[in-house]
Amino acid sequence: MDAKGSRNISMKAASNFSNKQYAIVTGLANNYNYAAIATASNVWPIGVLQNAPNASGKAADVAVNGVAKIKIAGLAGSKLTIGSPIVATASGFGHSLATTGGIPVGRAMQGGSSGDIVSVLLQATNQAGGGSVGVK
Fold first, then answer.
1. What is the DSSP letter of 72?
2. Least crowded by CB within 10 Å, which of 48, 87, 92, 131?
3. How do residues 70-120 score in pLDDT, each as one tens digit?
C-alpha cells in the first residue's frame, strides 16, 4: 500500500525498520540524513516511513507532505476519529493527541483502531507554536 498524493524524501534507515512501515520518523540526533523512529509525542516528526528497510543505511522512503498511510497504536479500546491530530507513541506508530504538548505529524483523514493503517494529512509543523498548523 503506497502513500497516495504524498511528497516523499529518501533518507537512510538508522537501523532495521522491517517491522516499522508506517511509523513516524525523526532525524537521527547527530545526522539528519538518517531516519530514526520517533518514540514520544513531543519528538519533532519529519514524516512517516512508507517502506520497511531491513538494515541500517538502506533507503528509507519518508512521506513529508500530502496524504500518507500511518499505522495506529496504543488506543486501548478507544477509536481514532477523523480530524484527530496524530503524534508518535513509544513504538513510533501513531496515536491521537489527547491534550496539548505533543507535536503532531498531521491529522487523521479516517477513523480507526489500534493496528489499523489509515490515511493521514501530513502538515507542516510550527516550531515556535509547538504544534502543527491549526492545532492549538
1. B
2. 131
3. 999 977 667 889 999 999 999 999 988 876 678 999 999 999 999 999 999
**Pairing mode of beta strands 6-13, 31-37:** parallel
Cβ neighbours of 16 (radius 10 Å): 13
Is 23 in contact with 91 (CB distance < 8 Å)? yes
Specify the pLDDT at position 100. 67
Domain coordinates of the chain in residue numbers? 6-65, 68-127
Q: Which of 24, 21, 46 is nearest to 96 (CA)?
A: 24
